[in-house]
Specification:
The structure holds 2 protein chains of 2 kinds.
Chain A (H helix, E strand, L loop, with lengths): L4 H4 L3 E6 L3 E6 L3 E6 L9 E5 L6 E6 L6 E5 L14 H6 L8 E8 L8 E2 L5 E4 L4 E4 L11 E2 L10
Chain B lengths: L10 E4 L3 E8 L5 E6 L9 H18 L16
Antiparallel strand pairs in B: 1-2, 2-3
The chains are: A mainly beta, B alpha+beta.
Chain lengths: 158, 79
Amino acid sequence: MLSMTKETRVAKVTVNTLLKGALEVDEHQLITFAVPLLGFEHLKRFLIYQTKPGALYWMQAVEDAKVGFCLLAPFEAGLDPDLEIAGEDVADIGAASAADIEVYTVVVLDPVPSERRTNLRAPILIGRASRIAKQVVLADHRLPIKFFLRDLKPLEKT
Amino acid sequence: MLVLTRRINERIVINGELVITVLDVGRNGQVRLGFDGPRHFQIYRHELLLEIQAENRQALSSAAEVPSDLVAPPPAKEG
């Protein structure tokens, strides 16, 4: 058996999260923004984690425990938005092809449940292997910045 | 801020790559601009970026108080 100790040793990082306190994660679970999130130019590294199975995720800033976002994986939620991603954006996140990209959208958990919404115009793309992220602004103006989650049709059970 | 005066059909070139042409100036104060350049220039109306920034900030403040139905309850203790 080959000894791969050095290569396989994964650095552990402790991330203080908004919802779950201190979490110890593998360093490769973190993502790094190539272009910062609009309005959060000082933060680059985030952890994506879940508190329960489903299409909702949380994105926690590594550098600031108070900065956390709720994300939706639209394709897992049964949404099938037609996202035309520019070649430059694919290159920016170090992805080889569209299949190599994870897509999340930023969720606003409005105190009024019917106002909870997500931004389909500016999804967060992550290179599956590179772990490099970017919030892209898509050219298609029909994609709503405010897509209300109340309009999510429950997945048809077949 | 650099200020240049241009007339209809006159152009501005940025970094030798991005060419901006004044297409029309309406009496209502609207100016139509045309952009020609490589695709790596991502050109947006400023308001769109402000709107996305505002929505990101809303998302942040809303995540601070997460509705309990969105987070799994802690595992029940046995016994």
